[in-house]
Amino acid sequence: MVVYLLCLVMFCLGIYCVVRKRNVIKLIIGVIILEYAVNLFFILVAYRKDGRAPIFAADQTVTNMVDPLPQALVLTSIVIGLAVTALLVGIAMRIYEKYGTFDITKIKELKG
Amino acid sequence: MSREHEKGMSLIVKTITRLTVGIIFLYGIYIVLHGHVTPGGGFAGGVIIALSFIHLMLAYGRQEAFKRLSRAAASVFESFGAIMFLGIALLGFVGGYFFLNFLPKGEPFRLFSAGIIPLCNIAICFKVGAGIFAIFVALVLLKLDLGKK
After folding, report:
1. Which residue of B has its CA nearest to A58?
2. Is residue B109 a contact partner of residue A57, using CB atoms and an 8 Å limit?
């Protein structure tokens, strides 16, 4: 149960980073922390006590495996997270090109 | 990649890169081809293959990496991966339905087994490797255009 609460703490840290920080790069890092907290939660939910990796090898019995379905979902989620991060970094670079700053409080005025 | 790294890094980095980049590339191919019997698969192997090209670009500069894999070639490989995956899935209609495993299954836990799954892994490897290299190139070129102003 404690590990789930630690996941929640990590999620809250990500929320804090997204809401409170003013630098765009720090905002992106906050989004990444959010993603990883959710991924970690899924992997922990799938864990069984004394389970082994869900890989079917030649001479192994099929007892006590951890749940493979959330692992497959998290793999897809990591791929999507990579694409989202690349998009966010591209947008941040465009913002810097247009306004010359990463501070979100200084880009409120519409310029050229 | 900043301006002084336009022509690549120092001699030490270049030498180590020349020694290791082929091994990294081969390891990526190994991960892809054994994707159906060991952990790994198309995505992980594709990322490792893309990282070998990114390694080359960081150490030797843009021109050397574009000589090995140009931007047009990366685009072609990415589209080829998607079309190959779709083609494998559509070939299932030969036997009846979408994604039918029409090849012989073979013996489990051997390299040549599991029907179409190794072919799907290779298609995903093309798509992911070229895609991640293209993302990196896009970000680097965006920054270089920025520096010109």
Report:
1. B109
2. yes
What's the rounded mean pLDDT across residues A25-39?
Answer: 93
**The two three-digit tokens of residue B132, written as one number:** 């991640």
Answer whether residue A40 shows pLDDT above 80: yes
Domains of chain A: 2-48+64-106 (1.10.287.3510)
Q: Give how far B34 is from chain A: nearest CA, Å.
A: 13
Q: What's the structural domain count of chain B?
A: 1
ipTM over 0.85: no
* pLDDT score recorded for residue B145: 59
pTM (two decimals): 0.79
Q: Domain containing B50: what range?
A: 3-148
DSSP state of B69: S
A93 interaction partners in chain B (CB closer than 8 Å): 139, 142-143, 146
Burial readout B82-104 (b: 16 or more C-beta within 10 A, e: otherwise): eebbeebeebeeeeeeeeeeebe
Pairwise CB contact (< 8 Å): A58 & B109? yes
pLDDT tens for each residue of B56-106: 888 887 777 778 778 888 888 889 989 998 988 888 888 788 878 777 777
Q: How many CB pairs under 8 A join A and B?
A: 23
Task: Say which amino acid occupies B54.
Answer: I
How far does the CA of residue A97 sit from the closest CA of chain B (Å)?
Answer: 7
Euclidean distance between CA atoms A40 and B8, whole angstroms? 38
Is the Cβ–Cβ distance between A50 and A73 less than 8 Å? no
Q: Does the pLDDT of residue A108 top 80, yes or no? A: no
